[in-house]
Task: inverse folding
């Protein structure tokens, strides 16, 4: 089972808290389904439709739950409900809770979401223009950023910003999924930071090794000249240490001196010796 299917299964089992929200979600289901006859291979989806109808006060069941047998085998669950008392679109947009319920109904019928270990994205495909417009208005009321597109001839609303996806999940009642996404985002950011630091450290190490090898070769030649013997003892000492310990960092070289010398002091002396060595060539 995909993550998206698993999330929908969890949402069909979520609590129905109010009559108005049940009406809003049921209206979304009607519009997205395009028919008063609902069928699904998942019994919980049909149970959800029945629960919504009962909670919203819709008593006109034509057939509460029925079963069909597919041509290829297996059961197909269904329900048929009179939609004559479906929710008023304008009433849906008056409350945040009803907007969220309508979004949940749309997502359950035709939504998709990526798993937490992938870049965050949620989308809903629409065949019904009314459902699309109400969904857009609901998202705007709830201040959730979204985009429009077309896929396989169907209009699509998609949310790809990670924080916007988290907001969407919380609104439709998928708090657990939001926590999973946030946890995935934290882990991803941590890995990216570790890689950045590692790459930076490797680049600095390469730079240090390259400079050390260049200085060693230059100083070895310079140490054979009279100009080197004329240098102050402190410069001769640091030059010998660089030749002998070419793998040490500037800080480690400074620690070998008596008295010890800081990183900037070592760098200054090595640079001075380099300049003199080049002049002596």
Result:
């Amino acid at each position: 089972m995909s993550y998206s299917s698993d999330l929908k299964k969890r949402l069909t089992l979520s609590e129905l808290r109010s009559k108005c929200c049940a009406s809003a979600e049921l209206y979304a289901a009607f519009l997205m389904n395009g028919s008063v006859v609902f069928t699904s291979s998942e019994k919980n989806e049909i149970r959800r439709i029945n629960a919504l109808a009962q909670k919203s006060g819709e008593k006109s069941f034509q057939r509460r739950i029925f079963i069909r047998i597919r041509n290829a085998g297996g059961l197909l669950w269904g329900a048929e409900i009179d939609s004559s008392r479906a929710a008023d679109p304008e009433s849906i947009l008056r409350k945040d809770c009803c907007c969220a319920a309508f979004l949940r109904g749309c997502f359950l019928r035709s939504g998709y979401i990526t798993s937490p270990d992938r870049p965050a994205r949620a989308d809903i495909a629409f065949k019904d223009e009314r459902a699309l417009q109400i969904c857009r208005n609901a998202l705007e009321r709830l201040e959730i950023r979204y985009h429009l597109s077309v896929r396989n001839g169907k209009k699509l609303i998609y949310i790809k910003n990670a924080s916007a996806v988290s907001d969407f999940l919380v609104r439709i009642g998928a708090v657990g999924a939001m926590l999973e996404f946030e946890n995935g985002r934290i882990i991803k950011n941590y890995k990216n930071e570790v890689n950045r630091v590692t790459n930076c450290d490797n680049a600095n190490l390469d730079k240090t090794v390259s400079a050390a090898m260049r200085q060693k070769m230059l100083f070895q030649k310079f140490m054979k000249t009279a100009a080197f013997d004329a240098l102050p003892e402190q410069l001769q000492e640091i030059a010998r240490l660089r030749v002998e310990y070419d793998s040490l960092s500037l800080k480690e070289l400074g620690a070998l001196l008596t008295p010890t010398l800081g990183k900037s002091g070592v760098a200054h002396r090595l640079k001075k010796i380099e300049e003199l060595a080049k002049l002596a060539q």
